[in-house]
Amino acid sequence: MTALRLTEAQFQQRVLETAAIHGWRYAHFRPARTVHGWRTPVQGYPGVPDLLLARHGVILLTELKTDTGRPTTEQLAWLEQLGNHGRLWRPRDWDQVHAELSRPKEH
Ligand SMILES: [Mg+2]
């Protein structure tokens, strides 16, 4: 399988399955169709990363993109403020993503 052809949805599924196997809790805020179009019911700044991942006191907020997808200005602003807790993951980064998710728990 070539990772380069994954859609963001397929990549997300792969990330979540791997996270679950390795004991991470996760949440994904999905947009829903409303009379005004697609909306995600979250108050606050736009561009919040796609996934919240937590395990043993480690929290990651990860923006997922395809290999060619470009983060928006708002998404980049979130990642900047998140510092070491923020991630921008793409299918081509799979080796790093897998290594981080499967790293043994610290303690
Ligand atoms: Mg995304």
Keywords for this entry:
107 residues, alpha+beta, Trna Endonuclease, Chain: A, domain 1, 4-stranded mixed sheet, two-stranded antiparallel ribbon, 3 helices, 6 strands, binds magnesium ion, VRR-NUC domain-containing protein, VRR_NUC, nuclease
Strand and helix layout:
Layout: H1 8-21, E1 25-28, E2 32-34, E3 37-39, E4 51-55, E5 58-64, H2 73-82, E6 86-89, H3 94-102
The protein binds magnesium ion.
Descriptive report:
- The chain is α+β, with helices and mostly antiparallel strands.
- The protein has a single domain (3-102), classed as Trna Endonuclease, Chain: A, domain 1 (3-Layer(aba) Sandwich).
- The chain is 31% helix and 24% strand.
- The protein has a four-stranded mixed sheet. It has a two-stranded antiparallel ribbon with strand order 2-3.
- Strand 5, helix 2 and strand 6 (86-89) form a beta-alpha-beta unit.
- Helix 1 runs parallel beside helix 3.
- The longest helix has 14 residues, at 8-21.
- Magnesium ion binds at residues 8, 50, 63-65.
